[in-house]
Amino acid sequence: MTLQFAATAFASAFSIIDPIGMIPLTLAVTAGVPPAARTRVVDHAVIVAAVVIVVMGFLGRWILKYLGITLPAFMIAGGILLFLIAIDMLFARKAGTKQTDEETREAAQTDNPAVFPLAVPMIAGPGTIATCLLLVSLSKGDREDLLIVALAFASALVTTWICMRAAAIIVHRIGNTGINVVTRLLGIILAALAVQFVLNGLAQTPLFTTPGRGT
């Protein structure tokens, strides 16, 4: 179960954050930032995003419990949200959960885009937060599984940091076409994971369970 959970956690973290997909977004948002300051902006953005993910990871279970939201309900809702994001990735469209048109205009007027919009919502957006909460809930408090979730997001954030720091070089080497290909592949993985989350949620819903079988 741990190996299966680890595979799900790492695939989910990398697919939803989409390090390669952050490359053109980084270049677009930091277009007005001097090259010397771009690295500091990227560093700041990844750190802020990590803090947001960690805080939500710690508070998520309590928030769901306080609101009376069951794990199956959250799995279904989270799966639907991730599937919608996956569709945008598959068609190489700008996801609304990453950044809206209004936020794009505001970002163009911001001197330091590290916190907004790079950290939130580009890296730690609703999809990322939902994925973190979902994985933490699935761990059911098991320390080993929680460590796996932490390592999965840490690995995804480090990879994202590397991609953002080397954005100009990567675009020059593989081009926008290469970035879109990788993003589409991650979109396929995310879509499959989203459907599986919904199916797992339905399987644990009393309405869809048959008498005499465990949930």
Put the structure in a nutshell.
This protein is mainly α and 215 residues long. 79% of the residues lie in helices and 0% in strands. The mean pLDDT is 86.
Q: Strands, helices and their partners?
A:
Elements lengths: L1 H16 L4 H8 L5 H33 L3 H20 L10 H8 L5 H10 L2 H14 L3 H23 L1 H37 L12
Helix pairs in contact: 1-7, 1-8, 1-9, 2-6, 2-9, 3-6, 3-7, 3-8, 4-7, 4-9, 7-8
Can you put this structure into words, describing what you see?
With 215 residues, the protein is mainly alpha-helical. The protein has one domain (2-206). The chain is built from nine helices and no strands. It has helices at 2-17, 22-29, 35-67, 71-90, 101-108, 114-123, 126-139, 143-165, 167-203. Helix 1 packs parallel to helix 8. The longest helix has 37 residues, at 167-203. It is globular. It starts with a helix and ends in a 12-residue tail after the last helix. The model has no long low-confidence stretch (mean pLDDT 86).
Number of strands: 0
Question: Topology as H/E string?
Answer: HHHHHHHHH
State mean pLDDT (0 to 100 scale). 86
Find the structural class using helix and strand composition: mainly alpha
The major β-sheet equals: none
How many alpha or pi helices?
A: 9
Enumerate the spans where pLDDT stays under 50 for 5 or more consecutive residues. none
